[in-house]
Amino acid sequence: MKEPAGWTLRVGLVGLAAAGVAYGLYRVTSRRSGGASPRPKGLGSLGGGEASGSPGLSSSPHRAPPQGGSDGSKSVLEAPHIKSLLHLLESTEDSSVQEQILVTLSNSAAFSVNQDIIRNLGGLSVIGEMLSVPVTNVKQKTLNALNNLSMNTKNQEELKIYITKVCEEVEASSVNSELQLAGLRFLTNISVTNDYHYMMTSFIPNFLHLLFEGNERTQVQVLKVLVNLSANPIMAEHLLNSQAPLLLSLFDSCINKDILLRVLVFATNLTKSMSHDKGSAIHNLYNEDSVFSTLSDNSLFTQKLASLLHHYDAEVKEQVAKLIMQQC
């Protein structure tokens, strides 16, 4: 008697799930031994990128095995295992099975060697196609996997085709939802370099909207994206021209330090671009609610910066001083 396809897929996952348990143990061991995070060059603490964790595991960034030495993960999840997972992902329409596979692939993609294997097996497009599945949990797990995969610059060249789709998901998702946060994490990683910033230009108003509508977790995550964008001089005009009437309210000592620091870096980056364009006639095009108007010739903004010089945190005070010097 022929077994149902769904039953066969679940049986196929049993062995891989066992490997996943051992893989998880390896990840814990790697974390304890102080392995390095698999980050592309140029990642910073305030913008930069980060890896996605699996449900029930630590939220700290995944650890990569030491480069140039033995890789313990290879004895747990090798290329044939990954190939089988990708095949299963392509062939099943069972959303619960899709979730299991995506979680395992996401954990696998925490390691740089597996990021390359997944790309070489054509897995980036297989995983990316899961964004079209109309199930929130599947989309979230897909974004977690894409996030980890995007920590590889070669992968980013292929994953750029999903930027618009992810931006749309972030915009359409419920504010502060896990799906929205997963999308923002992917956009944080993909915006570490300037190469794909132009693809996010039309979504800047939505990022700024989330900055004021979201909770602290969302604010921190969207600021990571905005900081990355603001570091690119080509994006300055788009950011400065955006409406952000509440931006001034974030320059306050009562604001969460993680948020305040990123807002200050965001402002410092844009102020640097403004100083390069002093006297430009285009400045006359900015209206009073724009980011430009908040950061330019605003006496209340100046007062707030002066007050923040007395902030309890030395890092905040240092960043405020940099911003003030940038204005001179």
UniProtKB/TrEMBL annotation:
Question: What InterPro entries does the record point to?
Answer: ARM-like, ARM-rpt_dom, ARM-type_fold, Armadillo, Armcx_regulator
- Show where the Armadillo repeat-containing domain sits: 77-294
Predominant localisation class: mitochondrion
Q: Keywords for this entry? A: Membrane, Mitochondrion, Mitochondrion outer membrane, Signal-anchor, Transmembrane, Transmembrane helix
The protein's topology relative to the membrane is: Single-pass membrane protein
Location within or outside the cell: Mitochondrion outer membrane
Q: Per UniProt, what is one Pfam family of this protein?
A: Arm_2
Q: Which SMART domains match?
A: ARM
Q: Where are the transmembrane segments?
A: 6-26
In which domain of life is the source organism classified?
Answer: Eukaryota
Q: Where is this region: Disordered?
A: 30-75
Extent of Low complexity compositional bias: 52-61
Family per similarity comment: Belongs to the eutherian X-chromosome-specific Armcx family.
Which PANTHER family does this chain map to?
ARMADILLO REPEAT CONTAINING 10, ARMADILLO REPEAT CONTAINING PROTEIN
The identity of this protein, by name, is Armadillo repeat-containing protein 10
The organism encoding this protein is Pantherophis guttatus
Lineage, uppermost ranks: Eukaryota, Metazoa, Chordata, Craniata, Vertebrata
Its gene name is ARMC10
